Amino acid sequence: MSPGMISVAGPPGSGKSSIFPLSSFGVPYFNADDRAAERNGGSYVGISKQIRVVVNREFEAFVLECIERRRSFAIETTLRSAVTFEQAALAKAAGFTTEMRYLALRDFAMHLERIKARADAGGHSASKTTLRATYESSLANLPRAIVEMDDLWVYDNSPV
């Protein structure tokens, strides 16, 4: 059986960690927000850019090591950039299957509401400008997943 790269993707506040916790896949995983909080003394509040830079390097090293060792793995991403597709191409070239579970809500306002509630409870957040840019980039990158991932599931996680 081929090793697999599992990506749980979607804009901030879409419910990625709640609906598809990376630990549930039974493979090594990396969640950059959780790792940044670890490096920030256990707090999701006030994570510095320096910590984010270090965590992004750790994230990349984790993915490359899993590919090199041909070990299945799971990651979480907002899909705001092409890096997940670049990693998936490397994984596929090494014989991995790639899958993505993409979650989003009906509109940006719903995402913003959830992020505000999360921040009020001590979770991570960002400025409205950053969140909107990430939301728009994530949705703009979704069509690429249709072409480049072996399997793709898209979920509307809006309240009923």
Describe the structure.
With 160 residues, the protein is an alpha/beta fold. It has a single domain, classed as 3-Layer(aba) Sandwich (Rossmann fold), CATH 3.40.50.300. It has 6 helices and 5 strands, in the order βαβααβαβααβ. It has a 5-stranded parallel sheet with strand order 2-3-1-4-5.
Largest sheet: 5 strands, parallel
Which residues form runs of ≥5 with pLDDT under 50? none
CATH superfamily: P-loop containing nucleotide triphosphate hydrolases
Number of domains: 1
CATH class wording:
Alpha Beta
The end-to-end span amounts to 38 Å
From the 3D structure, determine the CATH topology: Rossmann fold
Supply the helix-strand structural class: alpha/beta
Radius of gyration, in Å, reads 15 Å
Strand residues, percent: 15-25%
Report strand order across the widest sheet: 2-3-1-4-5
Give the % helix: 40-55%
What does the secondary structure layout of this molecule look like, with pairings?
Layout: E1 4-9, H1 16-19, E2 29-30, H2 32-39, H3 49-68, E3 73-77, H4 83-93, E4 97-104, H5 108-120, H6 128-148, E5 151-156
Parallel strand pairs: 1-3, 1-4, 2-3, 4-5
Brief summary:
Helix content is 48%, strand content 17%. The chain has 6 helices and 5 strands; from the N terminus they run E-H-E-H-H-E-H-E-H-H-E.
